[in-house]
Amino acid sequence: MKKYFVVFSIFGILSLIIACGTSKQTTKTADTKTAEKNPAIKEYALADIEAGKSLWAANCGKCHSLYAANAYTIAEWQDILPRMYKRSKLENKADAEKIDAYLYSNAKR
Ligand code: HEC
Known about the structure:
Layout: H1 2-37, H2 46-59, H3 74-88, H4 93-105
Helix pairs in contact: 2-4, 3-4
């Protein structure tokens, strides 16, 4: 009986270790999926990133001080930016996309 207990305990500990390892991997997969699902996360043209930086500097510091690109992750920016674009009245979608280009390319990783 004692032997079985030991075997089961080892098995239990091993499953825990494996479970933890797997859950880490799941997180990674989730990140990759977000990137795949979201067309916003892609390689941006350098010209767009540069233009985006100027637009960000011109539009995003009107109501509060400028929040640095690397203050947030891409996921956090995606959550914040739609609200801010509405506030900034950036009617021109192309301009908003350039700001995306700048902020996403320099976001916290
Ligand atoms: C018309 C005013 C206004 C403009 C323009 C504006 N913001 Fe904001 N921003 C706010 C207010 C007000 C808050 C406070 C939080 C809230 O109410 O959402 C805020 C909060 C934030 C935050 C803090 C995070 C959060 O979730 O609250 C970030 C980052 C931010 N703004 C980025 C930007 C960027 C980038 C732009 C340019 C595209 C921008 N803002 C333009 C008004 C503005």
